């Protein structure tokens, strides 16, 4: 047992480096206290084999994201295999789009080049088709065509005359009529002819029909022949007008075989379309469309591999999508409406994601795994990918995946994925663990000072003087709840310094002082302490009934911590115990009311084991005991009240009162050894607030486990009252030490005869239990 002095509770000056101001400290160039994380990260980023993606594990606020981005950017300078990505029209498949990978900056260059050359192609085609040479060749063909037609029809006409008919070409075909002496005969005149002449005409008509059929065949053949000649003329004219432009393109982008093939197909396609398109406005729009490229990844501004952090990894944001537009109520899409995702922009480099985000969006985790396994990036909308809407749609060509995925998450998420997802183990083989604290050595505090200096420099803040620097270290230790540890919640430390700078500038100072740090801490707490104030108000009004004076049998002040997301605070709770004759053992009212968590239930069973082994080795524990947390209506969890519950039960059995001016926290094992608990700072300060309100008189204090002494980073006002003897903190190692403080009597140790000394607390407990046992046994024998 030890009553802690002011010196025991303050920080040793010897651990602090001698520095007058943060101005004299060089900013840190890297992350502090991350040696193991550095090694793991370096290993993961250096591994080229499949599956060595990285999962950074650590609490929020420890700088995981900044660490990942910084480290990835450092490694990105060594990588040169990142590219631009364009999608083009696929002239072979209507519902496809071709992907073309280009060196950084070449995608933008290609897009601009094709935009410019499409105008030149249109102008050249228009110029060629409007040229005199084209018109002359076209007229020559037309004249040649007409001459051949005339020649065939002339021959037919001569043969028809010899057969007694006249022929005529009409829009509906070739018609003929009988004639005599060069004049056509009307139907009436033909009927008046002699029968033998009529029969002669009819026989000749059959011969003429045969001749006409042959002529029609010849005319169709000539039409086909000259149509092909006209088409060949258009194709040749088109090819002549665009060939040099495409050759220029091929020369400029000759390093890409895929692009050269695309240019050749474009040229041939335009040539083929020349026989269909005659309207120059239609030409202009068509050429512009097919020569357009969709540049979905442009790395022209990068000097190193891309590092992409996607803070909103929805399915389309991460994997891209195909957009649609509505035309007359029908959805339409093409290659120009393909949109990239973060995985495309990061390809060739590093993609950083938050685990919680990718798990909360539907299908994202499953798609990410499939992409990493296949090593292919496929753009497909979520409805098509998972069969939600199996309609025909555009299918962009997949591209090869070459990136390192870095996921940031909490330990809980990591272990859930590791336990329940077999693919996770194969894909994320590198675990980078982020510690939430570091040893508070002099060297580490120097590094911490360097971090503070970098925060000042990066945010253009006032420098911190020596006392302000020490107060930041004090606050860091308070966050870690350990004098031997510094908190690695660097985000919170940064925020504190920035807020302190605000208060220093309010008073027109050019330096951040200790008062500014304390002011920032105080105001930060004031912004979130409303619920704590309401509880304190209820305590002050005695609506929550806690005694801080006098002595009461079977009643003790325990300590609890309430957590409300952004704020935690301690408050006392009344624990009562009642003992009576019976064999029910210990009845935990919280457990019986389903208001006890598993850990608390275990703690009650543990103290039962302790009491039985201490007081009932010679006879059975024939006693009924009930314990309760008064005015507590939520679930009680944890074992930090087991010391208080044990003493309350001992008081109830022995009828020795407990001091109400002292609160107790601590867990015990079955040997009665007091074990450390969490939230020691909040618990002490919670009871202190109530006692200070009612008036400190030197009798008030708190009992804590000896192992928790190193966790006490208390506020100055408590330290001052400890120094002045108005408030006390005792550290104990076992139950007996706490009994002596709370009951003003020695607990008592077993002598050689196995008895406790008279007048000791343990003596009164054992005697009471013995009498109850003998009384019950006597009643049994009388029966």
UniProtKB/TrEMBL annotation:
The keyword Lipid metabolism does not apply. It is an enzyme of class 3 (hydrolase). The active site is at residues 640, 683. It catalyses: Hydrolysis of proteins in presence of ATP. InterPro entries: AAA_32, Lon_proteolytic, Lon_Prtase, LonB_AAA-LID, P-loop_NTPase, Ribosomal_Su5_D2-typ_SF, Ribsml_uS5_D2-typ_fold_subgr. Residues 569-745 form the Lon proteolytic domain. Residues 124-158 form a coiled coil. Pfam families: AAA_32, Lon_C, LonB_AAA-LID. Its EC number is 3.4.21.53. GO terms for molecular function: peptidase activity. It comes from the Bacteria. GO terms for biological process: proteolysis. Keywords: Coiled coil, Hydrolase, Protease, Serine protease. SUPFAM superfamilies: P-loop containing nucleoside triphosphate hydrolases, Ribosomal protein S5 domain 2-like. Belongs to the peptidase S16 family. This is endopeptidase La. It comes from Thermosipho affectus.
């Amino acid at each position: 047992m030890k009553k802690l002095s002011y010196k025991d509770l303050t920080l040793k000056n010897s651990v602090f480096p001698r520095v007058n101001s943060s101005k004299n400290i060089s900013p840190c160039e890297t992350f502090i206290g991350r040696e193991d994380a550095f090694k793991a990260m370096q290993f993961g980023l250096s591994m080229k084999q499949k599956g060595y993606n990285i999962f950074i594990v650590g609490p929020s606020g420890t700088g995981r994201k900044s660490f990942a981005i910084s480290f990835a950017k450092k490694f990105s300078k060594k990588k040169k295999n990142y590219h631009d990505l364009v999608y083009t029209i696929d002239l072979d498949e209507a519902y496809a789009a071709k992907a073309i990978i280009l060196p950084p900056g070449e995608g933008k260059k290609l897009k601009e080049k094709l935009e410019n050359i499409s105008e030149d192609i249109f102008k050249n085609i228009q110029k060629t088709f409007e040229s005199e040479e084209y018109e002359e060749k076209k007229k020559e063909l037309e004249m040649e065509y007409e001459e051949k037609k005339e020649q065939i029809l002339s021959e037919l006409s001569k043969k028809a005359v010899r057969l007694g008919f006249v022929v005529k070409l009409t829009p509906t075909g070739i018609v003929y009529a009988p004639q005599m002496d060069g004049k056509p005969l009307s139907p009436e005149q033909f009927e008046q002819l002699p029968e033998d002449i009529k029969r002669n005409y009819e026989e000749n008509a059959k011969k003429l029909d045969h001749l006409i059929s042959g002529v029609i065949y010849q005319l169709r053949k000539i039409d086909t022949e000259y149509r092909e000649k006209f088409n060949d003329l258009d194709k040749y004219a088109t090819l002549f007008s665009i060939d040099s432009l495409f050759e220029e393109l091929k020369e400029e982008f000759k390093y890409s075989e895929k692009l050269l093939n695309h240019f050749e197909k474009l040229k041939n396609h335009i040539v083929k379309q020349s026989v269909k398109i005659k309207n120059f406005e239609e030409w202009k729009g068509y050429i512009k469309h097919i020569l357009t490229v969709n540049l979905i990844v442009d790395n022209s501004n990068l000097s190193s591999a891309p590092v992409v952090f996607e803070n909103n990894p929805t399915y389309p944001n991460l994997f891209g999508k195909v957009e649609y537009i509505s035309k007359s109520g029908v959805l339409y899409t093409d290659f120009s409406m393909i949109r990239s995702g973060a995985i495309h922009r990061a390809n060739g480099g590093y993609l950083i994601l938050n685990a919680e985000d990718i798990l909360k969006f539907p299908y994202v985790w499953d798609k990410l795994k499939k992409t990493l396994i296949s090593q292919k990036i496929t753009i497909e909308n979520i409805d098509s990918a998972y069969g939600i809407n199996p309609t025909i749609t555009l299918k962009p060509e997949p591209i090869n995946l070459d990136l390192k995925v870095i996921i940031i998450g909490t330990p809980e998420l990591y272990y859930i994925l590791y336990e329940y997802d077999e693919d996770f183990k194969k894909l994320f083989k590198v675990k980078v663990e982020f510690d939430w604290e570091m040893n508070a050595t002099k060297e580490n505090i120097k590094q911490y000072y360097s971090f503070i200096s970098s925060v000042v420099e990066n945010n253009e803040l006032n420098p911190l003087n020596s006392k302000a620097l020490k107060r930041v270290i004090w606050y860091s230790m308070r966050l870690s709840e350990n004098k031997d540890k510094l908190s690695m919640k660097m985000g919170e430390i940064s925020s504190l310094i920035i807020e302190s700078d605000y208060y220093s500038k309010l008073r027109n100072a050019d330096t951040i002082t200790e008062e500014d740090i304390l002011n920032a801490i105080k105001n930060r707490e004031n912004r979130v302490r409303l619920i704590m104030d309401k509880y304190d108000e209820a305590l002050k009004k005695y609506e929550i009934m806690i005694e801080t004076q006098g002595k009461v049998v079977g009643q003790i002040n325990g300590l609890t911590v309430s957590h409300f997301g952004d704020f935690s605070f301690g408050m006392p709770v009344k624990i009562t115990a009642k003992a009576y004759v019976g064999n029910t053992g210990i009845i935990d009212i919280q457990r019986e009311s389903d208001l006890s968590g598993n850990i608390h239930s275990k703690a009650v069973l543990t103290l039962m084991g302790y009491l039985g082994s201490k007081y009932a080795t010679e006879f059975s524990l024939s006693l009924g005991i009930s314990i309760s947390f008064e005015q507590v209506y939520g679930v009680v969890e944890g074992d930090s009240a087991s010391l208080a519950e044990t003493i309350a039960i001992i008081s109830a059995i022995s009828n020795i009162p407990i001091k109400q001016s002292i609160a107790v926290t601590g867990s015990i094992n079955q040997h009665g050894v007091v074990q450390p608990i969490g939230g020691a700072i909040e618990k002490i300060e919670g009871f202190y607030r109530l006692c200070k309100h009612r008036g400190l008189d030197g009798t008030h204090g708190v009992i804590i486990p000896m192992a928790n002494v190193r966790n006490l980073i208390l506020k100055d006002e408590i330290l001052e009252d400890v120094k002045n003897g108005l408030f006390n903190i005792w550290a104990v190692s076992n139950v007996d030490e706490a009994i002596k403080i709370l009951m003003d009597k020695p607990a008592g140790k077993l002598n050689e005869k196995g008895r406790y000394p008279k007048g000791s607390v343990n003596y009164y407990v054992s005697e009471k239990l013995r009498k109850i046992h003998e009384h019950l046994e006597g009643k049994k024998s009388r029966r």
